[in-house]
Amino acid sequence: MPPAKKAKQERAPSAVIHVRNIPAHASEMDLVCTFSIYGPIKHILSLTSKRQALIEFENEQSSAGAMAAPALRVCGAGVDASYGGTGQLNPDGMSGIEISSTPSAVLIVAIEQCPFELPFHAIHRVLAAYGRVVRLIVLRKSTTQVLVEFESTVVARIACQALQNTAMLEGCGICRCNFSKNPSLSVPRDTADSRDFSRARRGSSVAAGGNLRQGRVGRVIVLQKLPPDVNCHHLVNLACLFGNVTTIRVLPKNPETAMIEFERSSGSQSFYKHCNDLPFLGTRLQLTVGDQQSINDTRSTPLSSGQPCCVNFKSDAHRRRYDNTKMQCTAPTAVLHYFNAPNTFQESHFKELCRRLQLPEPVKVSIKAGSTTLSGHLAFSSKAEAVDVVAKLNFVELRLPDGGLRTLKLSFSNMLVDSL
């Protein structure tokens, strides 16, 4: 059946259009998804029983663009449209969505033609990359519709600019974002698709700000505000010192955000405890530990640096700790313990290696010779320098005189610099 044609324009042009023959199952967010491509929407008033709606744009140019479209479809069905015959809608008593061009803390995101169902925690993970999410509601109808309340208008504005006309995750549909005039969202109770993160929940593992509490703790850590050139190997070189790492994924669309999946929740707890707000390659790590147990999207595409965005480290023997849950983790310090270095290495070799990788040189080096390898300590001027060395130098392969390779291994040490 061909799409319905727009009704004959009998009223004078205005910012309001009258839409008729809307499918019974269509929601107000479906209308937002259809008509927001023509311009910013100010109000929507749904007349559900009549399958009609009044849509007010911010200006007449936007409504004229909608009226000039050859066909209008909502949820795949053709609808009729004409000018509404009024300059503006009166929002008093309106039950519909109030949309504003003025930024607010509540963002309305419609995801067009998504071929698969987006997991709630994946949506939260993407949104939380821009700032703290206070409340989140996901509506799964003909389109995936997301209502998110951020901690501030500034955060919501940043998220809107970043997500507008882009895919939230690889392979999903384009996002259409609008601000809501509602100052906040209401989530009476937490469900699989709605959550109030400001409310303490019994058995919850993470507060709104990401702090650990008693209860079930997930194995996935979300890292934010990472340096732009970071890759999975930089992250695993540090994270594996606190627990066995299964998978790491840097978000290709937002490379300042990454996820680390640990084999056990004890690893994610230890990593969060010791590394949250830790200086790391010129930034400070911002960590959040949630209740999810795995990274669902493990597809790997190249980052801008050419490195893969997702790497599975489960079979990497070098980066695995002993399977002893009582094994103690050492908090980051300015002193590193190294081992498995070639027995031909001297202090000058360590300093040359740091210079080659553009890393700070150690201020002190101690060497203890073994039968085939060397071990000892490297002392740096600050904890931040030692962390950067771990990120880029840990597990580097060193060539032996006979042409073989040996993997250098680093860990943090409680040794005092003066005692070296």
Question: Strand sequence of the main sheet, in spatial order?
Answer: 7-11-8-10-9-12
Structural class: alpha+beta
- Output mean pLDDT: 80
Report the uncertain regions.
Answer: 4-9, 91-96, 200-216, 323-327
DSSP helix count? 8
**DSSP summary, beta strand count:** 25
What percentage of amino acids are in beta strands?
Answer: 25-35%
Largest sheet geometry: 6 strands, antiparallel
| Shape call | elongated
Helix percent reads: 10-25%
Distance between the termini: 83 Å
Radius of gyration: 27 Å
Description:
The chain is built from eight helices and 25 strands. By secondary structure, it is of the alpha+beta class. The protein starts with 15 loop residues before the first strand and ends in an 8-residue tail after the last strand. The protein is elongated and about 95 Å long. Helix content is 18%, strand content 28%. A hairpin with a 2-residue loop joins strand 16 (279-280) and strand 17. The protein has helices spanning 28-35, 60-68, 120-128, 153-163, 232-239, 265-275, 347-356, 383-393; strands at 16-20, 41-47, 52-57, 73-74, 77-78, 80-83, 99-100, 106-111, 133-140, 144-150, 175-180, 194-196, 220-224, 245-250, 258-262, 279-280, 283-284, 286-289, 310-312, 335-342, 364-369, 373-379, 397-399, 405-407, 409-412. Strands 7-11-8-10-9-12 form a six-stranded antiparallel sheet, sandwiched between helices. The protein has a five-stranded antiparallel sheet with strand order 18-13-15-14-19, with helices on one face. Strands 2-3-1-6 form a four-stranded antiparallel sheet.
